Amino acid sequence: MTLPLRPVSAVGALADALRRRVLSGEIAPGTPLPEQEIAAAYGVARPTVREALATLVHEGLLRRERNRSAYVPEVTLDDLDDLMYVRRPLEDLMAQAVAGRRVPAAEAALARMDALPVDAAWAESVSEHMALHQALIEAVGSPRLERLYSALAAETRLGLVRLREVYTDRDVLVHEHRELLDTIADGPVEAARAAVAAHLSHAWGGDAPS
Known about the structure:
By secondary structure, this protein is mainly alpha-helical. The protein is 64% helix and 2% strand. It has ten helices and two strands; from the N terminus they run αβααβααααααα.
């Protein structure tokens, strides 16, 4: 049976466009996003803009305060330090559970990252990077671990915007994740745990490592 595909709504298309710009770093932290200006720039009605912005606020990629336009929140190096402080034990649990096996969904995300064209927006790398790590977490089979990890998703994605300063050559990013997946798959557990810990101790660009 063939199921019809729903066309992408104007709200969804605008949210996608703004999301790509945020995750590629084109819209810098603190930049206001006035509804009227966005409506004019994209040729859509203000209610469409309002819904698209609400979608990104819900995802945590934008923040909105009373009497102020939506804006991209600043994720400081201290924020990133704290983010990694929380992520490390969660991904350590993943390493213990997944060591010794391949995770097809993570392998697929890495293959998609590797296949991106040279001029692909950084947002595309962010998307596949997130998909790879999410797939590893889901491979554990713990709904509670997934919920805890998902709560960090927005800040993680915003933090990954900084990494474009570190990974000017995407092949390096692909190579590091290939090594990570291979080490986890090969085991033993302690080797997998060490690889994950090292992977989460990279520098964020321009300052001290996180």
